[in-house]
Amino acid sequence: MKISTLKRHVREGAKNLIRNSWMTVAAVGAVTTTLVLVAAFLILILNLNQIAENIESDAEIRAFLELNTSDEEVESVGNEIEGISQVTNYQFSSKEEELENLIDDLGEEGESWELFEQDNPLNHVYVIQTEEAEDLSPVADQIGQIDKVESVEYGSETVDRLLQFNQYARYIGIGFIAALLLTAIFLISNTIKMTINARSEEIGIMRLVGAKNSFIRGPFFVEGLLTGVIGSIIPVTAVLVGYHFLYVNLNDRLNFQFIELLPWNPFAWQLSLMLLGIGAFIGIWGSVMSVRKFLRI
Amino acid sequence: MIEMENVHKVYDNGVTALSGVTTKVEDGEFVYVVGQSGAGKSSFIKLMYHEEVPSDGKVQINHVDVGNIKKRQVPYLRRSIGVIYQDFKLLPKMTAYENVAFALEVIEENPRKIRRRVMEVLDKVGLKHKARFIPAQLSGGEQQRVAIARAIVNNPKIVIADEPTGNLDPDTSWEIMRIFEEVNDTGTTVIMATHSREIVNTIRKRVIAMENGQVVRDEHRGEYGYED
Ligand SMILES: Nc1ncnc2c1ncn2[C@@H]1O[C@H](COP(=O)(O)OP(=O)(O)OP(=O)(O)O)[C@@H](O)[C@H]1O
Ligand SMILES: [Mg+2]
Fold first, then answer.
1. Of A135, A158, A182, A254, whose CB count within 10 A is highest?
2. Are both A120 and A97 inside the same structural domain?
3. Which residues of B touch A (CB under 8 A)?
4. Which residues contact residue B40 at a Cβ distance below 8 angstroms, ignoring those fewer than 6 apart?
5. Last residue of some domain: A154, A185, A212?
6. C-alpha to C-alpha distance for A42 and B211, rounded to whole angstroms
7. Mean pLDDT highest for which of A45-54, B126-135, B161-170?
8. Distance between CA atoms of B207 and B185, rounded to whole angstroms?
9. CATH label of the domain that carries residue A79
10. Domain B2-219 annotated CATH 3.40.50.300
11. Same domain as A142, residue A120
C-alpha cells in the first residue's frame, strides 16, 4: 500500500466519523461505557489481587515448640507437619537462629540481646506455609494438636476477615465481568446493526467501481481505531483523576498492614495505556466486523 | 474484444433474462443495445463486468472468460471497464468530486494526478462548479453526468453505459453523446443500452436489438427500428 493510499484511508475514516455522526456518538458511547466498566473492574481486581498476594506471602504459621523439646522430638514434630497435605513448605528455625534474627531485626538495640546468647529464652520454631491462605486456619489448628507444640501463631483475626472480604469482592468482580461483557456485546452489535443497511449498499458500489476488499476495509479500520481512541478519553481521564482521589482518600482510612492500594504511579498510567489499547481493539474489531459480512460475497 | 457464446442467464427466482446470446464486439466499436423494457439489455451488460455470471455459455473479454475469473481478480476486471449504471450507483455521502476520485484512488494513482484528472473530467461533463455537491443535492441528470465522469476518468478501454441519457434533457443528451463519441474516437469500445430513438437514428452506429433475451437484429449503422 502506498503512503498516499494510507493517507486517503485516514482521511476517509475521519470523514466517515463525521458523516455518520449519530453512529459515531453511539459507537464512542459504547466504547466509553465498556471502558469505564473495564477500568472499575480492573482497579478492583488488580488491587484485590495485590492484597491477596500480600496476605498469601505474609501469611505463615509459626509453631513454637516447648522449651524442653529434644532433638529427636523436634524431628518427629517435623515429620508430622510434613504429613499434613495442605502444607507446601516448612522450615525449622532453632532458638539460636531465632535469637540471631531478633538481634538483626532490632539493629542497634539488638546488641543488648546478645547477652542472652548463653541462656537463650526463645523457643525452637517451625515456620509453615500453606498453598492457599484459606488453609492457614485449619492447618494451624491441626499443628496445635501435635505433641510438644506449645503454641501456634498466625495473623488469624486479620487473615480470616480479609479472606472473607476477598471472597466477597471476587463475586462482585465476577458480576462486573458479566455486566461488562453483556454491555459491550449489546452496545457494539447494536451500533453495527444501525449502520449496516446504509453501508452494505455503499460497499456494493465500491466493489463495482473496482475496489479491493482491503481497500474498502482501510477506512473502516481507521474509523474503528479513532472510535476506540476517542471512546477512551473519558475513561482514561477518569482513571487518572479518580484513582488519585481514591488512592489518597482510601489508603489513609484503610490502615491495615495488608491493605495497601497499588500506587497511583505507575498503576494509573499502566491502566490508562491498557484502556487505550482495549478501546482501540474494541473499536477496530467492531468496525471491521461490521464490513466483514459484505466482503465475503 | 468482447465475445458472447450461446449465453444464457436465469436468475435465482427462475426468470430467464437471456437465452442463447451469441455476439462479438471488436475493439473500438460503438454499439447501441436496444429493445423493450425487460428484453435483457441490462442483464447482457452486467455479464461483462461480472456483476452477474452466465448460467450457461461463455463471456470473454480479450480472451479472458470473465464469468469464471477468481474472486480476487474481479476488481481488476472492473477497473478496466468504465460502467455507467442505470441507477447511477453514486456513493451517497461523497461529493461529486470524491465519487469520481474514488475510481482513481482504488488504483492508487498519485494524489496530484487525481486532482488534476478529476477536475478535467468534471469540466468535460459540465459539472466543475458542482464538484462539492453530494448526489442528493444534484438533479437526476447531474448525477448521471457524475456517473459518466467516474466511468471515463480512468481512460478505460471499454465503456459500458446503461441508458446514460435516460434522465437528461435533449441538449444535455447531445452533449453527453458528444463525450461518448470523443471517448470512442480515442479507440475505446463503447456499448450503450438506450431507449432513445432519436439518438440511435441520428448518430448512426451498430445496433444490437434484443427481444425476450435474444438478439433479434444486429446491423451496422442500424436504426432504432421498433415502436415503443
Ligand atoms: N436481479 C434479478 N433477479 C431476478 N430477475 C431479474 C433480475 N434482474 C433482472 N431480472 C429480470 O430479467 C429480465 C430482464 O431484465 P433486464 O434488466 O436485463 O431488462 P432491460 O432490457 O435492461 O430492461 P429496462 O429497459 O427496463 O432496463 C426482466 O424480466 C427482469 O425482471
Ligand atoms: Mg435495464
1. A135
2. yes
3. 49, 51, 72, 74-79, 83, 85, 89-93, 102-103, 105-108, 110-111, 150
4. B9, B17, B18, B21, B210, B212, B213, B214
5. A154
6. 70
7. B126-135
8. 18
9. 3.30.70.3040
10. yes
11. yes
Shared domain for A65 and A41, answered yes or no, is no
* Residues in chain B within 8 Å Cβ distance of A205: 89-91
**Is the minimum CB–CB distance between A5 and chain B shorter than 8 Å?**
yes
Give the pairing type, strands B16-25 and A149-153: unpaired
Is A208 in Cβ contact with B83 (below 8 Å)?
yes
pTM: predicted TM-score of the whole model, two decimal places: 0.75
Q: Is the distance from the beta carbon of residue B35 to the nearest atom of ligand 1 less than 6 Å?
A: yes
**Residue A272, C-alpha cell as written in the block:** 490508562
User: Which residues 6+ apart lie within 8 Å of B151 measured at CB?
Assistant: B82, B83, B84, B103, B159, B160, B161
Phi and psi (nearest 5°) for B30? -120, 120
Statement to judge: residues A165 and A277 lie in one domain: yes
Which ligand lies nearest to the CA atom of residue B196 in the structure?
1
Cβ distance A210 to B76 less than 8 Å, yes or no, reads: yes
Q: Tens digits of per-residue pLDDT, A223-240?
A: 889 989 999 999 999 999
Residues A167 and A291 in one domain: yes
What distance in Å separates residue B84's CA from the closest CA in chain A? 10
Cβ(B15) – ligand 1 distance below 6 Å: yes
